[in-house]
Structure formats: structure tokens, C-alpha cells
Amino acid sequence: MWSIIGTLVAGPAVWGIAGLFADRWLGFERTFTAVGVIVGFLTSLYIVYIRYGRG
Amino acid sequence: MAGAEQMRMNTTFIPLSGGEPGEFTPPSIGEFFPGALLFEGTLFEMSRINLIMVLMTTVLCVFFITAFRRPAVVPRGAQNFGEMALDFVRINIAEEVLGHHGRKYVVYLATVFFMLFAFNITSVIPPLQIAATSVIALPMILAVITWLIFNVSGVRAHGIVHYLKANLFPPGVPKPIYLLVTPIEFVSTFLLRPVTLTIRLVANMMAGHLLLVLFFTATQFLLLEATGVIKIFGLASFAMGFASTVLEVVVSFLQAYIFTLLTAVYIQGALAEEH
User: Fold this and answer.
1) pLDDT tens digits for B181-203?
2) Residue B222 gets which letter from DSSP?
3) B115, B64 in Cβ contact below 8 A?
4) Any residues with CB less than 8 A from the CB of A22 and at least 6 apart, and which?
5) Which residues of B touch A54 (CB under 8 A)?
6) Which residues does B86 contact at the CB level (< 8 Å), separation at least 6?
7) B93-108: per-residue pLDDT in tens?
8) Partner-chain contact B180 A50, CB within 8 Å
């Protein structure tokens, strides 16, 4: 249970922060941050499915 | 009420509440950084919170030594209670989660559980009235020890390569997707776990203490210093304070239980063949 929450928090956090750095580096406002948060969230959903959902 | 009398009430009724008489001071973060009481200015400077830690450790040691000094086949008194308490951790946490591996980890799990419970419950014991776990040091150290134990257990059970592979590369994922998955797995397993263990405990105990201080200082202020109809709200505040005290007892137990249970769950995850 708790590790699922951990994964769901870590996903957007990791790729959101990666996106933030990409934005800084490439000079965008928030584009990659937004993309990162969404991609991270989808990936963490996928991880939860892989680890716990397939039974 | 005379001024001197009021001051006396202020200092005896709630030893923690600061501020001038006649104005209400809400609790602040300063609550958690009380001044030095012993050995001021030396390396061993002790505040109220440090003294509570020493006191509760002594209480725990005395309790368990008395309980198990002369164990009888038919347990009585302290031994009876001590066995019940230990059995709770052994059966409901260690063996429930870890199965036959449980026995090996009972020592650590029981230590963590009773230590945390003793340090949490001080938040509602009258002269102490702050949880030793409401400052970050102790929860952080315990979280680090938990982190070391589950990782070392995992590495010893599977070898470092297999352990990392099982944690960072969940099976059945198309290869390119690992690029997205592995960093998340790394952060959630190896970085977030100790952090969330720490924050969950500290935040709960801090919030509980702030609630208690808020409601009881408000009660005192409203009943003794406010005028007219507003005094009635003092009763409501007292009722809330009482409810928060009961809640705090439950939270003390629950947070100790959750910390211990999660430690067991993390060890189980590290020992398990398949993730």
C-alpha cells in the first residue's frame, strides 16, 4: 500500500525535476516540467500496474 | 482575579505557555526547541526533550528487566504484561509480515516499536508533555537504521546484482521503458522510503503537540482572561483539548505500529524472491 503511494509520488517528482532542469538548460518557461510531471505520473501508474496489478 | 494569582495559574496550569498575561500566544515552532536544562554550554547540553529520552529509555529498560529477570513458566504481573507486549510485535508484525524469517528481526522490530511508543506517549504524560519523537533526530536515525537493515538483508539474500536488478528493473517491461521506470524505482525505493518514514512520524507528533498546546492554552485564555459570552467557548476548547488528548494516545500507538510494520514490510520486500 505505502510503496504504491511512494511510487506515485516519486514518478512525477523525478521526471518533473528532470523537466525543470531541462527547462533551465534549454531556456523554456515550464514546458518540460509539465511534460515531465505527466510522463512521470503515467510511468508510475505503469509501474504500479506491473508490480501489483497483474496478479 | 489578582495579577499574581493569574501568573501563578499561567505557570502551573500550562508550564509551556509563554507570553504576557492578558494576551493570547498561539503555540509556535519554538515549542520544539526548549532551552537547555542541564550542562548548559557543554557538549552534553540537555533540553527537556533530551531528558525525556533518557527518562523513557530508563523506564523501558527497568520495565523489561523487571518483567524478564526471573521468568516463570506461568507468567504473573510484569512478566505477563511484558510477554503480551512482546507477543504483539512478534505475532502481529514480525511473523505476520515476514513469516519464518520473522524471528530473526523480532529484536529490532520490538526495540523500534517500544522505543517509539514510549517516546510518543510522553506527549500526553503530564509533566513531560512533548513527544521525544517530535524533533527530527530520533526518527531520522531509526529510519536510517531501517534503511540499512532492509538493504543489507536484501543484498545478503540475493547478492547485490540480483537485489538491485529486482528493485530497479521490474520484470516484463519493454527495454526502452526502463529509461523512464528505473529512476522512479530508484528514488521511491532507496531515497523516499527513509524520508517518508521520518516525516510521517515527526509530522504526526509535532501536529499532535501543537494541537494540544493550542486547545489548552486557548481554554485557559478563554476561561480565565476573556470576558462575557466568549468564556463559553473555553468549554468547547477544553472539550476539543480532551478529544485531542485521546486522539494523541491513539496516534502514539499507531505511529509506532506503522513505523514498525513498514520496517517489516520493507525487509520482506527485500527478502522476497519475486518483486
Assistant:
1) 899 889 988 988 999 899 999 99
2) I
3) no
4) A28, A32, A33, A36
5) 172
6) B106, B110
7) 999 999 888 888 999 9
8) no
Query: Coil, strand, or helix at residue B1?
Result: coil
pTM, rounded to two decimals: 0.83
Angle of CA points B210, B215, B219, to nearest 5°: 145
Residues listed for chain A: 55
Q: Report d(CA B74, CA A51) in Å as an integer.
A: 47
Provide the 3-class DSSP secondary structure of residue A26: helix
* 3-state DSSP assignment of residue B205: helix
User: At what angle are helices B102-121 and B137-158 packed, to 10 degrees?
Assistant: 170
Predicted-complex ipTM score? 0.85
- How many domains is chain A partitioned into structurally? 1
Answer whether B210's CB lies under 8 Å from B123's CB: no
3-state secondary structure of B274: coil
Residues of B with CB under 8 A from a CB of A: 170, 172-173, 177, 180-181, 183-185, 187-189, 191-193, 196, 262, 265, 269, 275
What's the CA gap between B247 and B212, in Å, rounded?
10
Task: Report d(CA B271, CA B151) in Å as an integer.
Answer: 9
Q: Which residue has the higher pLDDT, B72 or B164?
A: B164
Query: What total of structural domains would you count in chain B?
Result: 1
- DSSP structure class, residue B16: T
